[in-house]
Design brief:
Distance between the termini: 20 Å
Number of strands: 3
Shape: globular
Strand content: 15-25%
Oligomer: single chain
Length: about 100
């Protein structure tokens, strides 16, 4: 899928991946790839800046975790992030219904 197709929706997708539990950045990338059956195979250069932005907006929180001898930043969804995800899901549902109506689905 073209990167242009997810512009404006990346934040919602990342929040949805983190809804399943805390994860380090690479696990977020893998989770997005796996749950989309490979449709969203995004590079680190796209995902990490978005995670940092979500953290600045307090939708996610992070902490350093040392696991298997590696130090990794682990991201978790905040209460504010859960609310944002709920709101964005609702917006997406309305948008997709409207598009479906226009294109005859």
């Amino acid at each position: 899928m073209r990167g242009e197709a997810i512009k404006g929706h990346l934040d919602m997708l990342l929040l949805a991946v983190l809804e399943d539990g805390d994860a380090h950045g690479y696990a977020v990338i893998e989770g997005l790839r796996e749950t989309s059956n490979g449709a969203f195979d995004l590079p680190e250069g796209t995902v990490y800046p978005a995670l940092h932005r979500l953290e600045r907006e307090r939708y996610v929180a992070s902490q350093w975790n040392k696991s298997s001898g590696r130090k990794r930043r682990v991201y978790s969804l905040t209460a504010r992030g859960r609310k944002a995800l709920t709101d964005r899901r609702s917006e997406w549902a309305g948008f997709s219904r409207a598009v479906g109506t226009v294109i005859g689905l």
